[in-house]
Amino acid sequence: MKRIVIVGAGAVGSHIGALLTKHDQDITLLDYWHEHVEAIRREGVRLSGMSEADSQTIRVNAMHMAEAAQLAHQKPVDIAIVATKSYDTEWATMMIRPYLAADGFVVSLQNCINEERIAGIVGWGRTVGCIAARISVELYAPGQVRRQAPTGAAHHTVFRVGEIHGRVTPRVSRLAELLSLVDTAKVTTNLWGERWAKLSHNAMRNGVAAVTGMRGNDIDGDEAVRRFTIMLGAEAVQVGQALGYELEKVGKIDPRTLARADTDAQAYQAVEDLLVKERTDRVRGDLQRPSTGQDILKGRRTEIEFINGYVADQGRRLGIATPYNEKVTRLVNEVERGTIQPDPRHIKEIA
Fold first, then answer.
1. Based on the domain organization, do 137 and 216 belong to the same domain?
2. Beta bridge partners of 146
3. Domain CATH number, residue 26
4. Average pLDDT over the chain, rounded to whole?
5. CB atoms within 10 A of CB 152
6. Looking at the predicted structure, is the pLDDT value of residue 265 above 50?
7. Rounded to whole angstroms, what are the CA distances from 307 to 71, 92, 200, 302?
8. 137 pairs with which residues across the strands?
9. pLDDT of the residue at 286
10. Are residues 153 and 131 in the same domain?
């Protein structure tokens, strides 16, 4: 059995770790939130979801980050899953590196594009990527994770595991098999296209939630705010295409259509119609809040520099204008500093 350590037991890490433990996998959660780790040790991870079957409490092995040195006296780590915020990637990878098995590897299971940061510490050969698409989980109290999207949806694959070079290898096949114990999973030969599509989706929603204070359904339901998100997505896809990536769907939106939405009225209308339909079809949308919006509510640092800020940085490097992504990055930074408060008017004035 593979020894798996999940570095960063936030919403995604705790959710996955608990369900893998339920299926008799050798899991250790490693986190720096003291109250969270202690709650898991006392009571386990309490999961709640959209059905009675999704609600359960699972006992999981959990360690404080300060106890990480104890790993030296335990079985080597075969798979280290980094599920931290992007700004914690380097130190988290550096911390777990000494405890890897000879053929052990590190998996980035994060919102943003961090494989290069991980490879800079453990090498490209020990780096694997994994996207969790539309998993919609929230750590709302110590030891308590709520999922706000249905599990096992036939029309949607949650986990996409891939090698940097795009080939299918035994280790990513095994990892996808393990994650299928949690939800739908597949091996992708297009990791970078998957990554940029997820980044584009996050670029449309996360910063907007932080600046406006709105939930997902409210964002899609407001015409002016919705227009702003479409412009964000168009810029993000244009940059990804210029980088040479073959983007997968951005949520349910065809990336080629989204890329034209800032100048083509027909493309814009197609994207808008899909977002409106998604809003009416979405279940429990009143509970959905993108992670950057959650960070603002919790008073935590956001990943905005690794989402919209990253799109803008790459756009500048390529000579592609990204005014909407630049603006939302600045606004989120102002909200973080407390110079402005979350309010939809910040977006509506621009849109």
1. no
2. 48, 138
3. 3.40.50.720
4. 94
5. 11
6. yes
7. 33, 19, 8, 10
8. 147
9. 45
10. yes
Is residue 153's pLDDT more than 70?
no
pLDDT in tens, 298-307: 899 999 999 9
- For the chain, what is the largest distance between any 2 Cα atoms, rounded to a whole number of angstroms? 62
Residue 168 shares a structural domain with residue 28: yes
**pLDDT > 70: percent of the chain:** 97
Rounded average pLDDT over 129-146: 93
DSSP-based three-state secondary structure for 46: strand
Question: Which residues are within 8 A (CB) of 240 and not within 5 positions of it... i.e. 6 or more apart?
Answer: 193, 196, 197, 199, 200, 247, 255
Rounded to the nearest 10 degrees, the angle between the axes of helix 223-242 and helix 323-337 is: 120
Same domain flag for 7 and 149: yes
For residue 250, the 8-state DSSP code is B
Q: Are residues 253 and 343 in the same domain?
A: yes
Instruction: Give the residue-averaged pLDDT of 160-181.
Output: 97
CB 8, CB 22: distance < 8 Å: no
Structural domains of the chain, count:
2
- 58, 89, 155, 284, 327 from 323: Cα distances, Å: 46, 27, 34, 33, 6
CA distance 340 to 331: 8
Q: Is the pLDDT of residue 285 over 50?
A: no
pLDDT category, 150, cuts 50, 70, 90?
confident
Q: Which of 115-129, 155-169, 191-205, 279-293 has the lowest mean pLDDT?
A: 279-293
What type of residue sits at position 65?
Answer: M
Beta-strand relationship, 56-58 and 45-48: antiparallel
Domain match, 140 and 241 both: no
Domain that holds residue 340: 194-350
- A 10 A CB-CB count for 73 gives 6
Q: How far apart are CA 327 and CA 15, in angstroms?
A: 33
State both tokens at 181. 């114990």
Do residues 61 and 154 share a domain?
A: yes
Residue that terminates a domain, selected from 189, 210, 232: 189
Last residue of a domain, one of 189, 206, 226: 189
Band of the pLDDT at 50, cuts 50, 70, 90?
confident
CB 128 within 8 A of CB 92: no
